[in-house]
Amino acid sequence: MRVGKAVALVLVVGLVILAIAGCGGGGGSAGKTIKIGAFYPLTGPNAIKGQFNRNGTELAVRDINAAGGVLGKRIEVLYEDTQGRKENVVNVVRKLVEQDKVVALLGEVASSVSIAAGPVVKQYKIPCIAPTSTNLRVVLDPEDPKSALVTVRWDPSAKLNPYYFRACFVDPVQGAALAQFAYDKLGKRTAAIYYNIAQDYNKGLAMVFKDQWLKLGGQIVAEETYPDGTQDFKPQLTNIKTASPEVLLIPNTYAENGLILKQARELGLSTVFLLGDASHAPRLIEVAGKEAAEGLYLSTLYAPDDPDPKAKAFAEKYRNAYHEDPNSNAAFSYEAMIVLAKAIQQAGKAEPQAIRDALEKISGVDVPTGTFTMDPSTHAPLDKPVVIITVKDGKFYFVDKVVPR
């Protein structure tokens, strides 16, 4: 074989290999897929909620790709497990950005973990949507001294993290709605609070509830806290029982609240329990037991038996895919993925900065809980009502929607 022919053959083979490699997709937006990174707690205490997040995300990806994808490419989501631990999240995000070359992120579930992810999200300048993290500080600039001081009320002078967004309402809305529901709809006037002092979500929701409850004219008769890792809640519950509150707010995770409810009933505490969206999981009732959970009220983002046609349609789609009811984590991870895909479409290119810029302008996107419009001044959606649900015979049921005044 002559040299000229050999060189030509090598070039042809090289082009074929490159073409095959191109068909393999991946590589951020360079191939036939657009890579998104999702960091959820897939193991550990919040694993059940994390699995709902993953299912909701996958369902959205299936719908997006079935409709032709985005910019002519399929969406591919790469998942990483944070184990629900703040100390893991920085390495998890670095891996997704540096090694997997994702162009945007979804995560985390718990506010504390999302807040811990804030500096690295900003460092890499990559857009991230937290589907269900409700603490105010999640979307604030971690380098701004004022952001560390934000607890109960939004401070418009605090700087936003330019790259962090959320799909859900915030704790001031949720805490205020719980107080308003208990005061107006249940007619209660005395309340107690019992929460995990180590977690931002728990503290934030407790403080907002207390502030709104006092503003409405209610009375706080007891306030107790506990640290991470607590298993015996009876000493503080005994103190609360002595105070005889009409309602008891326990704004903790489903795993902790399951034990709290069980031990409270063992002590004979007969108050009405109020819980936040972090407890919206069937495991709550499994841990507490049907009798202990009966009659509690819980604020959440979404209920599958919400009579709204869009909510019902999403519930049916989820049941067909996973043979169980969706919860808020599933619904809002679905919404976050749909909103992110819309932002990529409107950006016209799958590049982090362009996606970030488009996210701030997202408006009127059709989602299971209505429509989604991003408020560029808070990086949170506008006009999301709080859904109130209850437990009857071991199952969650829709009660009401509340827009705090």
If you had to describe this structure to a student in words, what would you say it looks like?
With 405 residues, the protein is of the alpha/beta class. Strands 7-6-8-9-10-15-16 form a seven-stranded mixed beta sheet, with helices on both faces. Helix 3 runs parallel beside helix 4 and helix 12 packs across helix 13. The longest helix is centred in the N-terminal third of the chain and has 21 residues. It starts with a helix and ends with a strand. The N terminus is likely disordered.
Describe the structure concisely.
By secondary structure, this protein is of the alpha/beta class. Helices cover 44% and strands 19% of the residues.
Please state the oligomeric state of the protein chains shown.
single chain
Shape descriptor? globular
Mean pLDDT: 90
List segments where confidence is low: pLDDT < 50 over at least 5 consecutive residues: 1-27
**In order across it, which strands form the biggest sheet?**
7-6-8-9-10-15-16
Q: C-alpha Rg, in Å? A: 23 Å
In percent terms, what proportion of residues is strand?
15-25%
Class by alpha and beta content: alpha/beta
State the end-to-end distance.
85 Å
Question: What is the string of SSEs from the N terminus onward?
Answer: HEHEHEHEEHEHEHEHEHHEHHHEEEEEE
Biggest sheet details: 7 strands, mixed
* Number of helices, where a helix is a run of at least 4 consecutive DSSP H or I residues: 13
